[in-house]
Amino acid sequence: MLQKEKLVLVGNGMAGVNAVEHLLKLAPGKYEVTIFGSEPHPNYNRILLSYVLAGDSKVDDIVIHPFEWYEKNGITLYTNQTVTQIDTTAQTVTSDKGVTVPYDKLILATGSNPFMIPLPGADKEGVMAYRTIRDCEIMIDSAKKYKKAIVIGGGLLGLEAARGFLNLGMKVDVVHILDTIMERQLDRPASKMLQEALEAQGMNFLLEKQSAEIVGDKRVTGLKFKDGSVAEADLIVMAVGIRPNVQLAKDAGLECNPGIIVNDYLQTSVPNVYAVGECAMHRGIAYGLVAPLYEQGAVLAKHLAGVETGPYEGSVVYTKLKVSGVDVFSGGQFVDAEGTKAIRVHDEFSGIYKKVVIKDNKIIGAVLFGDTSDGTRLMQMIREETDISGMEKTSILKDSSGGGGAVSGVADLKDDAIICGCNGVTKGAICSAIKEQGLTSVEEVKNCTTASRSCGGCKPLVSDLLAYTLGDSYDKNAAKESICGCTDHTRDEVVAAVREKGLTHVREVMNVLGWKNEEGCSKCRPALNYYLGMVSPETYRDDSTSRFVNERMHANIQKDGTYSVVPRMYGGVTNPAELKRIAEVAEQFNVPTVKLTGGQRIDLLGVKKEDLTAMWEALDMPSGYAYGKALRTVKTCVGETFCRFGTGDAMGVGIQMEKRFERLNTPAKVKMAVSGCPRNCAESGIKDLGVVSVDGGWELYAGGNGGVKVRVGDLLATVKTEQEIIEYTEAYLQYYRETGKYGERTSEWVHRLGIEHVREVIQNEEKRKELCARMDVALSVTKDPWKAAIDSKKIQQDLYEVVELK
Question: What is the dihedral of CA 753, 755, 757, 763, to 10 degrees?
Fold first, then answer.
């Protein structure tokens, strides 16, 4: 038996481990693999750190290769150990923990280090970089104590950090030396559109600002600029760029300038030593995006496996990602230059911008904002230097392949076209997996190939590849994800079973439908509770144990274990007596913080659990459902009542809508707004349902979202009367209740069903009346949960009284 060669990988990041994964598939018995990682974690997706920071994912959710993967593949993994010495003569590496391992082949994948601006005061507490899980943990911890952050750097990493701070409840300034953000990925129009979208989310930009000094004593208190102005801060994150981490290589005598110099097979200047990823310098370029790093890794893996491979000749850099929920793509040379011409589509209302740059009848670059569906196809044309002289220029930004639509579009892609940029998965890999593994759904493709596992932006392309590979046997509508890992049943199958079998309890559903986990989980139990209540609103008894803590307590739990109380204020309108009562109650219960919410409500923060019911009774106001999957608020402007531009009674309509739909259970939270004129001061265009007064009537916009995934609403209908507003809203919300997945916002729901379909249902008079009738039934049984708790000693004892242990 041949003795395995010893392969050591220094760096447990995405680029290096991806290369090893390829190598194991190509030559499973060739190497005995050892990996050193400086962090205590297994290989994880650094791209998704922003999701962890924002609270949308846990650390486990972004792990690419769990510890079991290393064990299964016979890999020796040293975590929390940094290699400090390479002896290229003896061919050994030694870690800071004193572990020495010999190698026959060595891969350096040491990545990069964040660049820290050498400002006076940069050594103060509260000044940090954003690069690792540990950085995320520090930032999350800081958000519990501090309220204001500054991010220096308007690139992708800086914007992700800023978005995370907003989600953590902090105010944040983004400082950038230029007058546009993400200038390496976007041209000026796209950059400005992104800035506007992010400002709508709450980010504040300080552009064309040069940092001069970090002020404060022991801990940072602010950032001083060269123009003399100062911005306050409790925390400063530097996200101004990265530098290849090459000190280990330099000490070992490897040629570096500034990254580790490699040839077209990723070989360094020293025999048997290779470099891949952000630390490598190939033909004068060090790449910082994942797709080029995976392209390098594929060549390196084939070379080490002894498989014939072409050289790595560099990558055409492109980026397809989500920035705070906004789809962005850029590739190639997208800036106008001498000899270039551009095709542009700029729809400010829909928030879509597309630009293709052409030179010598070839596409050399593109920028897409808001709709990136053309990105993969354009990238292929850029790489292949496709001659477009015979093409209609207006057809370049849409699929012009004829009747085949999207499926024909993916058919034209080569097997090496990268479908999932986050994880470097190609069309060929996906199609092979579909055929060989018998995959039939996007979920199965994700689990098998990791495509769409990260940001999810490539799911439509994966679905198109399924249709292309499986042909007529693929039912795109049937290939839906199960509601959780406890069952193979989809949302539609569960609802159908509840209706057809007359199921009435959460456990009954799980028993009848054969749940794998008989107790269910935190994802499926709340969903089942909602579906049962939606199907049988008059008879179903809500299962409070299947609700999340906020909905069970009817108050938002805060980081320190206290709660927030938001009373209902219809349409954001109040009166002196109500305001006085709120103030008196806040004093009575020593409420530490009183805040106005974005939905024009008053938030009483820091309330003890045992004080909740007494406070609600003293307020004598209904719950504002700030915690619930229900109608949160109807935001209004002052409308024609006071505004000289107003053409409609925004406040009156908003109050009507809020009183009509308060306490209505919905798949996810619902926010609405009414603007008294097209100036749209109530931001109706980015609400789940927005109403705008126009000449002769009202426009209704559906499926907007001003949160992490910003989406401008689609025009649903134009009506003439206030009564019609209520009627159309009833039908719209009821249809959402009946067809939406639990946890799915209307923005996702409208995108999934298509606005044309939703519009067709709502504007059909017969269907609308049927939906309104079912809405009447649903609303007839709602009760104010605060009053129910006030009137029930049992509820108070079960949920709100603090039991002292003796």
Answer: 140
